Amino acid sequence: MPWPLGSIGFQWYSSPFGGILKAVRGMHDIFGLEMTKWKWIETQVRSVFENFGYQEIRTPVLENIEVFSKTVGDETDIVEKQMYQVTKENESLVLRPEGTAGFMRAVLEHQLHRDPSVQKYFYYLPMFRHERPQKGRLRQFHQFGAEFINDSSPEADADVIALLDSIYRKLGITEYDIRINSLGCLECRPQMKETLTRFLKPELPKLCEQCQKRFERAPFRILDCKRESCREITAQGPVLSSCLCSKCQAHHLQLKKRLNEAQINFIDDPSIVRGLDYYSSTAFEFTSSLLGAQSALGGGGRYDQLAERFGEKPFPAVGFALGMERLVIALEAKNAFPEKPLVPRIYLAPLGDKALDILFPLSLNLRRAGVWTEISYESQKSLKAQLKHANRIQCRFSLILGEDEINKKTALLKDMTAQTQMEIPLEGLFENLLNKVTREN
Ligand code: HAM
């Protein structure tokens, strides 16, 4: 896949308006070569979703605050401190920090879970979290997400993990670890909680302030604390998988069997608890050494009880999301973007108004025929200046038309790579040209 030109590099522009001409901290403009890389990734990822039978869904960027506060969890970083709030009249809205809760709101609103024809949805949407920006961690970032509903089998979990794995494989990324865990269900989670809190209670004074706060209401969140001192304590904790009920154990075993059959390497890691509260049973994370400190490439899990948090009857659901910006970092670290730049096929250089009269409609006809065509509308410019531009944008061919050529009823086609040129009659110019420029490499 080739690349277009157009990235002219960064230029420092000091504005008299100060910050107004700067994107909001942690948010970026995407254009030029960067945009082409994104579009290339988007095409690859979409094709994998389609092969796995996923249908696209787009939900609004604003949701009522409860969509997240009731679902992602009061004690999570996202709800506690990262949501961008928008208040208008009596509405309290937030810019979506993640896709699953809004997806569930849409499913319930439109009763999509009752539609037997579609069980699998994907999205590609911007997300907003007020985090401390650093490499791979932004305040506006983009996620591809997959949500598979109405299937409670471990095979559905394996299917979703295989899908995420296939996306990275399709992009040529192999440097990642897959970690899986089971978080238990309504039946065994109380036992897990009890075991965990019994262990943590005597350690409480040594935990950070936030973990102490979380002890009563959300002790599992403590396992997700990033502080080294808290991590050292939780690493000594009980193996919670021993508390799983027989159903959860069987589910987890079968998932592992399926992943092995699919030749997907994974690590069974009891420390995977995820940073959102709606998960039960299977949870997983993909991490990569290509990324640096923010090593999470993607992650997800099962959220069979999420509908209940909206006051509805629950149904099975499993899914994941992956960060687009982190994909770009991984691919750049590997130098894995295809190299050859995509360049315009032909540049039309009119010398004078009469030439422009002929070349203007020709440019449109070539574009309609699928040929990337550039044209100069400054027909008074010298041939030298026009060809210099054609060279700069690396056009494969240039077509020159001046007084002399018009008098001779021909145009001059230059092959900029082979450094050859030939005359083409004006009569039948479009067909001849199309034939010539689409035939050559
Ligand atoms: P999450 O783990 O919060 O899960 O985010 C998924 C991925 O989004 C991360 O692995 C990372 O690649 C990317 N990501 C998260 N935060 C940032 C950030 N600030 N900057 C750049 N990239 C970021 C969820 O969001 C769940 N909704 C996933 C899910 C779907 N579970 C079930 N279905």
Could you tell me the mean pLDDT? 92
Please report the total strand number as a whole number.
18
| Spatial shape | elongated
CATH topology type of the largest domain: BirA Bifunctional Protein, domain 2
Bound molecules: histidyl-adenosine monophosphate
Largest sheet: 8 strands, mixed
For the record, what CATH class of the largest domain applies? Alpha Beta
Instruction: Tell me the strand order in the biggest sheet.
Output: 2-6-7-12-11-10-8-9
Question: Gist?
Answer:
It contains 15 helices and 18 strands. The chain is α/β, with parallel strands linked by helices.
Give descriptors for this structure.
BirA Bifunctional Protein, domain 2, 441 residues, Rossmann fold, binds histidyl-adenosine monophosphate, 5-stranded mixed sheet, alpha/beta
Would you kindly provide a written description of the structure presented here, covering whatever features stand out?
By secondary structure, the chain is of the alpha/beta class. The protein has 2 domains: 32-188 and 244-333, 2-Layer Sandwich (BirA Bifunctional Protein, domain 2); 346-439, Anticodon-binding domain (Rossmann fold, 3-Layer(aba) Sandwich). The chain is built from 15 helices and 18 strands. It has an 8-stranded mixed β-sheet. Strand 14 (346-350), helix 12 (353-368) and strand 15 (373-375) form a beta-alpha-beta unit. Helix 1 packs antiparallel against helix 5 (154-170). The radius of gyration is 28 Å and the shape is elongated. The model is unreliable at 5-11 (pLDDT under 50). Bound molecules: histidyl-adenosine monophosphate. Histidyl-adenosine monophosphate is lined by residues 98-100, 129, 131, 136-138, 141, 143, 145, 147, 275-276, 296-301, 303, 319-323, 325-326.
